[in-house]
Amino acid sequence: QLVPEGSLFFGCAKTKRELSMRQLENYLKLVSNDSSNETTTTTTSQQEEEADEEASQQLRDFEKQLQWEIDVNTNMLNSTKGRCMFLDFQIFIDPMTGRFYHLDFDRCFYNRTVHDGSECSHQLRNYTNELLEIKRRRRESIITIE
After folding, report:
1. What is the pLDDT of residues 77-120, one digit of tens each?
2. By CB distance 3.0 to 4.6 Å, which of 21, 94, 100, 118 could disulfide with 69?
């Protein structure tokens, strides 16, 4: 298995970007359905606090990893040596951990003119912001259910 199950695809080329957005929309539907199907169980106040703290820590860990991945990839796309990655930039993002998994490293061996990677960086940042917002809303809906 190359990437964790449930990972979301992101690509900068127009057709890949459209696929990326469809996957993100499907992920939103999936987590929205999950939160509406949550079952209430009888828990103590202490158990609720512990579960809330654990979920909060998981979200903080996710945000930290996601931000690190965005920074590293943005720096790479905008660097002289890494700019070639823009030619067909495509990754999978693990929606549980925020880790990125790259595909097609051979794009740097193409003999093509390399353009500025800032547009791809901007698209990546927007995409991951959407993912983060979904995670935050999911977190809030779970707190509300409890």
Report:
1. 888 777 777 777 889 999 999 999 987 666 666 665 556 667 88
2. 100
Amino acid at 7: S
Which phi and psi angles does 136 have, rounded to 5°?
-65, -45
- Tell me what the mean pLDDT of segment 128-143 comes to: 83
DSSP of 11-55, one letter per residue? ESSHHHHHHHHHHHHHHHHHHHHHHHTPPP----HHHHHHHHHHH
Per-residue pLDDT of 2-53, as tens digits, reads 899 999 999 888 888 889 999 999 999 988 887 666 555 556 778 788 878 8
Which residues contact residue 60 at a Cβ distance below 8 angstroms, ignoring those fewer than 6 apart?
A: none
* Location of structure tokens 């990893």: 65
Contact in structure between 94 and 3 (CB atoms under 8 Å): yes
Residues in Cβ contact with 69 at an 8 Å cutoff, skipping those fewer than 6 apart: 93, 98, 99, 100, 128
Residue 26 makes CB contacts below 8 A (sequence gap 6+) with none
